[in-house]
Specification:
The chain is α/β, with parallel strands linked by helices. The chain is about 45% helix and about 15% strand. Helix 2 links the parallel strand 1 and strand 2. It is globular. The relative contact order is 0.15. Bound molecules: 2-phosphoglycolic acid. The site of 2-phosphoglycolic acid (PGA) has 13 residues, from strand 8. 2-phosphoglycolic acid binds next to strand 8.
């Protein structure tokens, strides 16, 4: 009998993801129109294995989930969820409600939430718990400010954001988590981290995962890069060994640009 050779590369293959964070853009009609362009364009032009996740404002989730129903290479997510389960929290949307509207993912800890809504790592941990309880898969975002990078402090900032929100998660929860590294100085500024700068931080995050949760979690967690990703710079960024895809803001609002970014991720 021949020896069975297990190809570790295949076993450890991480999900490649391109996620579009629409932020607070597009009214209902315009959002439907954009998704109606993006979905068939990616379907016909992207031949490789890729998960495309659209993160529209809450009001679009149900309609977009219907548009993408039955298409395994697409998923819909929310840009945030409440840290509470249900009750008297005016204006909040619970993770379970998001799931019931047809979403499978949720962004947690985006720098705009941290900066504009004073969200702390401990608060992000509560949101992560609600997301897991509801059956959502979170994309947890980390990233340093410009001053912190200039001061050479990015490692401390990233460790703080990772350990402050993830340390108490179980292995089973970690298996459902996606991470995104988004240097705040690169978001919406047109300044992108160079592929080498991004790779350095992604490798650092993967090392942290290995130390905290072991090599298996570290090897299979998809880590996305975000911050002025566009159709021109995507290929080089996605070519780095620890960059598994992108969390795209501005360029996700244009179907052609977003499709080109999707095509670049293989
Ligand atoms: P950007 O946004 O691509 O417009 O820089 C990225 C993000 O904030 O997720």
């Amino acid at each position: 009998m021949g020896k069975i050779i297990i190809d570790k590369e295949i076993l450890m293959k991480r999900t490649r993801i391109v996620a579009g964070n629409w932020k607070m853009n597009k009214d209902f009609e315009a959002g439907l129109a954009l998704a109606s362009e993006i979905i068939p364009m990616i379907e016909s032009e992207v031949q490789h294995d890729l998960l495309t996740i659209l993160f529209p404002p809450f009001i679009h989730i149900h309609a977009l989930a219907s548009l993408s129903a039955g298409k395994k290479q697409f998923a819909i997510g929310a840009q945030d969820c409440s840290a509470f389960e249900s009750g008297a929290y005016t204006g909040e949307v619970a993770a379970a409600m998001i799931k019931s509207a047809g979403a499978d993912y949720v962004l947690i800890g985006h720098s705009e939430r941290r900066q504009l809504h004073s969200e702390t790592n401990a608060f992000c941990y509560e949101k992560l718990k609600r997301a897991f309880e509801a059956g959502l898969k979170p994309i947890y975002c980390v990233g340093e400010l410009k001053e912190q990078r200039i001061a050479g402090a990015f490692e401390d900032v990233i460790i703080d954001q990772l350990s402050g929100a993830l340390q108490k998660l179980t292995t089973r929860e970690m298996e459902r988590l996606v991470l995104a590294y988004e240097p705040v100085w690169a978001i919406g500024t047109g300044l992108t981290a160079s592929p080498e700068q991004a790779q350095e931080v992604h490798a650092f995050i993967r090392q942290w995962l290995a130390t905290q949760f072991g090599p298996d979690i570290s090897n299979r967690t998809s880590i996305l890069y975000g911050g002025s990703v566009n159709a021109v710079n995507a290929k080089e960024l996605f070519g780095m060994p620890d960059i598994d895809g992108g969390l795209v803001g501005g360029a996700s609002l244009k179907s052609r640009d977003f499709t080109e970014i999707a095509k670049a991720n293989h």
